[in-house]
């Protein structure tokens, strides 16, 4: 099968950083399904795994943690899927990724693809949607049925992949969503997705929020740098409010800044369940099914903004370079094998 892989961890400008290759087609066993991959999206995790270092792989390593495709065959313990089903999933960062014509994935973390979306539109969603959903509804414990209606949420990194779906989920739950966006095009995008306010993070955030009438917020979802926003978040969170972060800190965080407010800080890592094979890992497959129903009902929309074709090393290098710029709006997808 065709695949795009690496053996050396190189800057993306190096033509060997990601190369076209052929690998044996795998066979599914147990709870694995074999998927014929039709479209993949690129996330910052791809560029972080690929980041330059001295390590060398003995065998070609395939990246890619977002896919949509068709079930080719299933393992003997599979119950949720059969050959021919259209599926979408993020997969497992500890296993070979989706930048290959065929990929094995545990059925418990796979969803049935929305029927109203193309493969490219569907591939834009799984990783960021799992992250945003778990961040808002599990870690922040926001009530999806409207129990937090009217509460405020400050979404940092509003125009990115995770922010773009989080804004929609927050609005679905009835929250007032204030999202950061620093450029006219990203501000227009977050408003189009339903954000009540777009705030430029280059300005004095506390003052800008106060001008909007949000000197304090009930929830903060930080989808950007945790260190840089720690002090601002401690100031903006209301007493007993909740903050979620998804980007690991590089400096020690001063938890004492949250103490007098009895504010909660939680991490969200969407690979936790697959990485540790948690007893509830099937919740992710069910979550993706629920999201597909919301998409098909017109309550959520894809965050796809740009499609490159075909899936090959040259286009993946271009996509990695774009994601590394930190300027992507919505999601960037590669579709078809040419
Ligand atoms: N823990 C997890 O499970 C998990 C899951 C997914 C992602 N992540 C991590 O979360 C981060 C965001 O992921 P993503 O996919 O949303 O990224 P992304 O799509 O690459 O985000 C790009 C957006 O970030 C905004 N941005 C750039 N600098 C910013 C800043 N200083 N403050 C606020 N926003 C800024 C830009 O919008 P402007 O126009 O406003 O500049 C841009 O639209 C990455 O570090 C990723 O690795 C973690």
Q: What is the name of the CATH superfamily of the largest domain?
A: Medium-chain alcohol dehydrogenases, catalytic domain
- Reported CATH architecture of the largest domain: Alpha-Beta Complex
Proportion of helical residues? 25-40%
Quote the average pLDDT: 98
Tell me the total number of β-strands: 16
Q: Please report the number of helical segments.
A: 10
| Computed Rg | 20 Å
- Our count of domains comes out at 2
CATH fold label of the largest domain: Quinone Oxidoreductase, Chain A, domain 1
Structural account:
It is a single chain. By secondary structure, the chain is α/β, with parallel strands linked by helices. The chain has 2 domains: 2-125 and 272-335, Medium-chain alcohol dehydrogenases, catalytic domain (Quinone Oxidoreductase, Chain A, domain 1), CATH 3.90.180; 129-267, 3-Layer(aba) Sandwich (Rossmann fold), CATH 3.40.50. 28% of the residues lie in helices and 28% in strands. It is built from 10 helices and 16 strands. It has helices spanning 44-50, 119-123, 126-139, 161-172, 184-192, 205-211, 226-236, 272-275, 282-296, 313-324, and strands spanning 2-9, 19-22, 32-41, 53-61, 67-74, 86-89, 102-106, 110-112, 152-156, 176-180, 197-199, 217-222, 237-245, 264-267, 304-308, 331-335. The strands form 3 sheets. Strands 3, 5, 6, 7, 8, 15 and 16 form a 7-stranded mixed β-sheet that branches. The chain has a 6-stranded parallel β-sheet with strand order 11-10-9-12-13-14, with helices on both faces. Helix 3 crosses helix 4 (161-172) and helix 3 packs across helix 9 (282-296). The protein starts with a strand and ends with a strand. The mean pLDDT is 98.
């Amino acid at each position: 099968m065709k695949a795009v892989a690496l053996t050396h961890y190189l800057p993306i400008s190096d033509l060997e950083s990601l190369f076209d290759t052929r690998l044996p087609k795998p066979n599914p066993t147990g709870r694995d399904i074999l998927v014929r991959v039709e479209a993949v999206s690129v996330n910052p995790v791809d560029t972080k795994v690929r980041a330059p270092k001295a390590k060398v792989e003995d065998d070609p390593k395939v990246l890619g943690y977002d896919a949509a495709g068709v079930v080719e065959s299933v393992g003997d313990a599979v119950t949720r899927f059969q050959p021919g089903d259209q599926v979408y999933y993020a997969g497992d960062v500890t296993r070979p990724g989706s930048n290959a014509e065929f990929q094995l994935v545990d059925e418990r973390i796979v969803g049935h693809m929305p029927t109203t979306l193309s493969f490219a539109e569907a591939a834009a969603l799984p990783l960021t949607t799992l992250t945003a959903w778990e961040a808002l509804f599990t870690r922040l414990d926001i009530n999806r049925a409207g129990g937090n209606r009217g509460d405020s949420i400050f979404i940092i990194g509003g125009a990115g992949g995770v922010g773009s779906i989080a804004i929609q989920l927050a609005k679905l739950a009835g929250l007032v969503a204030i999202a950061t966006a620093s450029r006219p095009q990203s501000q227009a995008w977050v408003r189009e997705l339903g954000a009540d306010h777009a705030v430029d993070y280059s300005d004095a955030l506390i003052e800008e929020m106060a001008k909007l009438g949000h000197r304090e917020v009930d929830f903060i979802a930080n989808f950007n740098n945790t260190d840089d926003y720690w002090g601002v978040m401690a100031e903006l969170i209301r007493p007993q409010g909740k903050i979620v972060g998804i980007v690991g800190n590089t400096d020690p965080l001063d938890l004492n800044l949250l103490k007098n407010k009895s504010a909660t800080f939680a991490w969200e890592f969407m690979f936790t369940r697959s990485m540790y094979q948690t007893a509830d890992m099937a919740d992710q497959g069910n979550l993706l099914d629920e999201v597909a129903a919301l998409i098909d009902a017109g309550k959520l929309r894809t965050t796809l903004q740009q499609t490159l074709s075909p899936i090959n090393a040259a286009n993946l290098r271009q996509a990695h370079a774009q994601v590394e710029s930190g300027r992507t709006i919505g999601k960037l997808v590669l579709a078809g094998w040419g």
